[in-house]
Amino acid sequence: MPADPDPATALIVVDVQNDFCPGGALAVPEGDAVVPVINALARRFATVVLTQDWHPADHLSFASQHPGRAPFETVEMPYGPQVLWPDHCVRGTPGAALHPGLDIPHAAMIQRKGLRREVDSYSAFLEADRATRTGLDGWLAARGIRAVVVCGLATDFCVAWTALDARRFGFAAGVVEEACRAIDTGGSLARAWADMAAAGVRRIARAAEL
Ligand SMILES: [Zn+2]
């Protein structure tokens, strides 16, 4: 077993929720395959943050709120392009619940995101308007955290945006590839890895390389 990561490194487990797993409303292929990998990974970190996509039922990232539009089309929002999704992770529903196999009892906090109807939030740090902070950066900094390792669902959206924003807020960041799965629509996965590489996010193929 490799040495535990430095105590100043936190693990961020992104959106391992029923709706992103097979059978869910916005299932990521093999999404549930990350659960045992993440459970083992999390045991090596003293500080673990879980994130939870948590939308009102009429959230504007839902294609159902845009007459004539279909899921996976892109529309222009005041803050820029927005991919439209099937209704997913409606707050308080079973689909929004964390996957029941997730076993991380020492997780210190759950960062919910996407709570405002008008603005999506792939990132755990900054909403899609690129202005509204969730407060996670301050929470981590106050605990002496200087680096984050990101895993979960989906690689090319919420994981990538979270890792990129971690860099924006001055944290070192890495993504564990075997602890993520992607949606990969319209070349999004290749683009996400390129963006992350350009921002200095470390690509970690396997947890054993940490
Ligand atoms: Zn969402």
From TrEMBL:
A Pfam family matched in the record: Isochorismatase
Superkingdom, natural source: Bacteria
InterPro entries (UniProt xref): Isochorismatase-like_dom (IPR000868), Isochorismatase-like_sf (IPR036380), Isochorismatase_Nicotinamidase (IPR052347)
Alphabetical list of CDD domains matching this protein: nicotinamidase
Transmembrane parts of this sequence: none
Segments forming domain Isochorismatase-like: 9-201
Pathway: Cofactor biosynthesis; nicotinate biosynthesis; nicotinate from nicotinamide: step 1/1
Assigned EC number: 3.5.1.19
Name of the top EC class for this enzyme: hydrolase
Keyword annotations of the record: Hydrolase, Metal-binding, Pyridine nucleotide biosynthesis
PANTHER family named among the record's database cross-references: LD05707P, PYRAZINAMIDASE/NICOTINAMIDASE
Protein name (record): nicotinamidase
